[in-house]
User: Fold this.
Amino acid sequence: MDGFDYRDVVEDVYATAAQTPQPSLCCTTTPIWQLPGLDVPQAMLERNYGCGTTIHPRDLVNVERALYVGVGAGMEALQLSYFLRRKGAVVALDKVPAMLETARGLLDLAASRNPWFEPSFVDLREGDALSLPVQSESIDVAAQNCLFNIFKREHLARALAEVYRVLEPGGRFVLSDPVAERPMPSRLADDARLRAECLSGALTLEEYLEAIVAAGFGTIEVRARRPYRVLDKKRYRLDENLLLESIEAVAIKDPVPDDGPCIFTGRSVIYVGEDDQFDDGKGHLMSRDMPLGVCDKTAGALERLGRDDLVITASTWHYAGDGCC
Ligand SMILES: C[S@@+](CC[C@H](N)C(=O)[O-])C[C@H]1O[C@@H](n2cnc3c(N)ncnc32)[C@H](O)[C@@H]1O
Assistant:
């Protein structure tokens, strides 16, 4: 079709979803954060189109300015404001004017129910993830929930490059998105409506991590990985069911080391030898019997030592940031 761009369908889908809640759209299968003194309006909850959470208090310590890309109805912008509580501290943007209007109205409603919150805490902007209206190196923490999976490869690369550009060195990019257990058949990947519904744009986790590293992020932590949807073989005319999982991850803007990125997936090493400690000579000091979280690269290197006094565990996909690499 001449001039057809799947992003037009995406914008139509979310213009409708701004006005009328779409229960089947992207809804998270995990409970929404309940935070003391935070009352999230019901209409915001009904328009929660994320697939996990991007709100982690430990990312928000000493944060001056956060960016939220694809604000939707504003729930996570409100949750970010809960931690930052300053005028303009959360820059939140969306490409769909109807969604911005909904977010604005619901943030006003939230202000009437939450004495600590003022709508001016969120700087709502119309903008495109592919060309962020934000100064370079001006953001400490950027977040997006269930938007980047919709983008085709070239657009994903551009969106990731934009997030990288606006982050301060050492800044964090927190994300949640679906991933697919195997590559998406092109018949489904090319279906603009399924893409918009966060069902057929998903890459495999490996492909997604590669795209994040290609944008320049040197460290990635996978915090959660859980079942999200099944594209069942009957409805989607597949040879086998295709499981989608929702991941939560954080990518850190630090240089990619010469020997490759540090990707933490919840692997640990436990030294069980005769000494008090084992030092691998590469910055990893293991106290006897104490698990040390390590990135996959380090876990692989330690495995290759072939020592029977090192117990190296499999990925849990729930890394909580306790390691070194
Ligand atoms: C799946 S929804 C997620 C909304 C929100 N993050 C949440 O968790 O509820 C995707 C959001 O991205 C917005 N969007 C779509 N294309 C965009 C683009 N190119 N740039 C910025 N926002 C976009 C949509 O309008 C919608 O609000």
